[in-house]
Write a structure and sequence with these properties.
Number of helices: 3
Number of strands: 0
Radius of gyration: 37 Å
Helix content: over 70%
Largest sheet: none
Strand content: under 5%
Oligomer: single chain
Structural class: mainly alpha
Order of helices and strands: HHH
Distance between the termini: 46 Å
């Protein structure tokens, strides 16, 4: 069980490192994009007003298209992650059910063991004389045994 958890932690660590690398790459790409936009802006200032409007529209269309593609990638990644998490949830639910079933069987085994111990105690016959010494928490068991 611990090996499984350790493996999952290592997988999560690798995923985190991949995500960090992806974010660093994204930051670098954004810096480059910002530099390009600044250069384009400086060039646009030198153009006529009509050309500036056309160029601005083209830039906005390009930006929105790239943004849409990035969002689509993100949605795909999140859907994949959701499917993976649902599979893990089903797996762990099955494990929990198996554990609950095994624990439900355990009290029955304990009762069998306790019954066998009582039978073993009843077979031992010793003669005791004098006062009886017992612990306070054993009193209900002692009373029940005395009555039976």
């Amino acid at each position: 069980f611990f090996r499984l958890l350790e493996a999952q932690i290592q997988d999560q660590r690798r995923e985190h490192e991949k995500e960090m690398e992806a974010l660093k790459n994204k930051v670098d790409a954004m810096k480059e994009e910002l530099e390009k936009q600044q250069q384009a802006f400086l060039q646009t200032l030198q153009m006529s007003p009509e050309v500036q409007v056309d160029f601005g529209l083209q830039q906005e269309i390009t930006y929105l298209t790239n943004e849409n593609l990035d969002l689509k990638e993100l949605v795909d990644m999140l859907e994949s992650n959701e499917r993976k998490l649902k599979k893990q949830l089903k797996f762990y639910m099955k494990k929990v059910q198996e554990l609950e079933a095994s624990q439900a069987m355990l009290p029955a085994e304990r009762r069998q063991y306790k019954h066998n111990m009582e039978a073993a105690v009843q077979r031992k016959e010793k003669n005791f004389q004098g006062m009886l010494e017992y612990y306070k928490e054993d009193e209900p068991l002692l009373i029940r045994n005395l009555i039976t």
